[in-house]
């Protein structure tokens, strides 16, 4: 479960200040986003992570610094990036690039100097965005009447927001707005300061994007889990076979980033926050979708025929943790431009569906109960209402109905019968779309 304590995993000490770990676009290193002024007085950069062991004892782990720090060329921007040896963080920070419009209470995490003698130094402060300041800094007020001495040392610490199982990085704390204990105001740097450093050093630094956007290989063990069988061994070979087909896709030019750049907001349901395009869930869904398409169409999926597939079978994603049935109003208003009449809409969500497709005879009732003005529809001329023009399915139906619900049909497949397994899966997948709803 993600909570405030989780922020400790992303917060490090940088010399006498703080820094924020970011698991970026490579597994060669991690970024530490921090402040220039944490580095200037020290020729040797020291980065350390602190955590409490099972007995409550403080453990300090030095992180190996790679290369010299990269600092912002603008003297008015306090941003700096340090590269440290890669360690898998598990969780992925999501970036919010417009902090001024973010009206929620945020968390500042860092290591203030006044707590240097305490057993566990990490401090969390509530802060709220006030306004944009000089040179693009963001001014925020700190809750709890925090004074200057309590904030010193937190410079370089991350500004976070937690929502469910997601952690958003809003910015990096730089300084007090004024050295006045009564004001309790800080200035933090938006993420774009660090993106500017990366742009100026593109030979040495990669974008602030999750590494799995660059290759499906990081997700291959998370697809086609086929969970819910009474005898797991019944589908063990089929699972491995499906993932082997996934390996073929991994070796192709197709990457999550290529797909993201090609289709952008058409990949998600109406009004879905675009940060979900950087989440694992949508790209796990896409790898599963491509595996299904590879079998159904019996041809390799490439960057050349991807749009053709997208215009016949439209995968759209919702980051909801609820059932997809609750997303119907947004699904109806999603972008179907380019999708042919009679096309199939495949919906994916973070949660397995209660019903994997719309029951027969319910479409008319859904259209009536979720009235949509024609001007709200994003669909080609002459197509009509999307629920009437297209058939909708949840992506999990391919696993639940075609394999898990028929697990005993798969128990005898082996390397010797792979061709037969391919034909069985092809028949099942195509049959699903023809028979339901």
UniProtKB/TrEMBL annotation:
SUPFAM superfamilies: Trypsin-like serine proteases
Pfam families: CTD4
ABC-three component systems C-terminal domain: residues covered: 188-404
Identification of the protein by name: ABC-three component systems C-terminal domain-containing protein
């Amino acid at each position: 479960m993600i909570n405030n304590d989780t922020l400790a995993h992303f917060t490090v000490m940088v010399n006498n200040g703080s820094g924020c770990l970011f698991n970026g676009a490579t597994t060669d290193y991690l970024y530490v986003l921090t402040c220039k002024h944490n580095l200037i007085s020290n020729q040797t950069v020291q980065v350390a992570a602190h955590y409490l062991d099972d007995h409550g004892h403080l453990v300090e782990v030095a992180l190996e610094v790679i290369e010299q720090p990269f600092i912002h060329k603008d003297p008015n921007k306090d941003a700096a990036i340090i590269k440290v040896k890669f360690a898998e963080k598990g969780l992925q920070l999501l970036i919010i690039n417009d902090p001024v419009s973010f009206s929620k209470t945020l968390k500042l995490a860092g290591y203030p100097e006044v707590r240097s003698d305490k057993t566990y130094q990490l401090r969390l402060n509530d802060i709220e965005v006030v306004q944009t300041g000089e040179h693009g800094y963001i001014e925020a007020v700190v809750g709890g009447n925090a004074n200057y001495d309590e904030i010193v040392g937190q410079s370089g610490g991350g500004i976070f927001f937690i929502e469910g199982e997601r952690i958003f990085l809003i910015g990096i704390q730089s300084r007090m707005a004024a050295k006045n204990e009564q004001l309790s105001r800080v200035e933090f740097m938006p993420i774009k300061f660090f993106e500017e450093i990366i742009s100026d050093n593109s030979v040495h630094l990669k974008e602030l994007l999750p590494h799995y956007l660059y290759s499906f290989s990081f997700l291959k063990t998370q697809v086609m889990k086929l969970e819910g069988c009474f005898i797991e061994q019944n589908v063990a070979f089929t699972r491995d076979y499906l993932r082997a087909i996934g390996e073929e896709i991994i070796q192709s030019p197709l990457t999550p980033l290529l797909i993201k750049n090609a289709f952008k907001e058409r990949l998600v349901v109406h009004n879905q926050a675009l940060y979900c395009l950087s989440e694992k869930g949508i790209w796990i869904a896409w790898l599963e979708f491509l595996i299904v398409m590879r079998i159904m169409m019996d041809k390799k999926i490439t960057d050349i025929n991807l749009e053709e597939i997208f215009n016949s079978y439209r995968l759209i994603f919702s980051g909801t943790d609820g059932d997809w049935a609750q997303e119907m109003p947004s699904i109806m208003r999603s972008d179907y431009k380019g999708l042919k009449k009679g096309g199939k809409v495949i919906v994916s969500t973070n949660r397995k569906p209660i019903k994997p497709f719309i029951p027969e005879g319910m479409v008319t009732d859904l259209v009536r109960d979720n009235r949509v003005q024609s001007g709200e529809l994003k669909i080609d001329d002459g197509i009509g209402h999307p629920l009437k023009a297209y058939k909708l399915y949840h992506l999990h139906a391919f696993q639940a109905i075609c394999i898990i619900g028929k697990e005993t049909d798969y128990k005898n497949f082996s390397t010797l019968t792979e061709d037969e397994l391919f034909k069985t899966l092809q028949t099942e997948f195509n049959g699903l779309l023809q028979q339901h709803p």
